[in-house]
Specification:
Length: about 240
């Protein structure tokens, strides 16, 4: 049995093909896993747990609940698109919410899990917005608005973000090597698994004489993909379309 990792699915009702891939993955590959870790951006965006009654959201929650009910522990880390997922979602779906970063022991090896956006420190404008948006005041103000107003506000932020990305150099939207090394050093030179950058790859970093493996998870915009880890190591697996 393997432990599976996914991130950056960006699920929404307007992407039926990827939704089918996700539900199929939960029913097939994830069913035989020892655990499933979702490292952020499960949804294209999440406006609050009071939107659990939305038909699409309810379908995702029910699918996760079936997986957990079938005996597969499932863990969810917030991403930059769904960081207001809260306790009501966790209770309805059965998932366990993870802090970012989360350090665990996996098959006798320390593994550090992150969404990955905090590693992109060269994008100072994004980091400033992230600090503001994760504050209790910002979240309280957002969740205090009616659902329709929240959706409009988040859609506006998404459009602004996409417009700003077109004017940014590609390198500042990737991880900063110095921040990666500092993170590995700070957490005792673990294997690092993260998403966010949409640049799937396996990297090897040598930090203070320690060789550290870093896996970047793929997004699910074109096709589904997951990372499977067991006693022998990790491998990226592309889902069949």
């Amino acid at each position: 049995m393997s432990t599976l990792f996914i991130s950056d699915l960006h699920l929404c009702s307007g992407r039926p093909q990827i939704n089918r891939s996700f539900f199929g993955f939960l029913e097939r590959e994830a069913r035989s896993a020892s655990a499933l870790y979702i490292l952020g951006d499960l949804f294209e965006y999440w406006v609050g747990d009071d939107d659990l009654g939305d038909p699409f959201n309810a379908t995702v929650v029910a699918a996760l609940a079936r997986l957990v009910g079938g005996g597969v522990p499932t863990y969810l880390m917030h991403g930059n698109r769904d960081f207001v997922i809260g306790g009501a979602f966790a209770r309805a779906s059965g998932v366990t919410l993870l802090t970012d970063p989360a350090l665990l022991s996996l098959y006798g090896q320390p593994v550090l899990l992150m969404h990955g956006d905090t590693l992109c420190t060269l994008d100072q404008k994004y980091q400033a917005f992230r600090r503001e948006a994760r504050s209790e005041t910002w979240i309280r103000n957002l969740l205090g608005k009616p659902l329709a107003e929240r959706r409009a506000a988040i859609e506006a932020l998404r459009r602004q973000s996409e417009q700003e990305k077109r004017g940014k150099p590609a390198e500042i939207m990737d991880v900063a090597p110095a921040e990666v090394e500092a993170t590995l050093r700070r957490h005792g030179y673990p294997r690092l698994i993260h998403g966010h950058t949409h640049r799937p790859a396996r990297h090897v970093h040598t930090v203070d004489g320690h060789v550290c493996e870093r896996w970047v998870l793929a997004d699910w915009y074109q096709a589904g993909s997951y990372l499977a880890c067991d006693e022998s190591g990790c491998r990226a697996v592309q889902l069949k379309s």
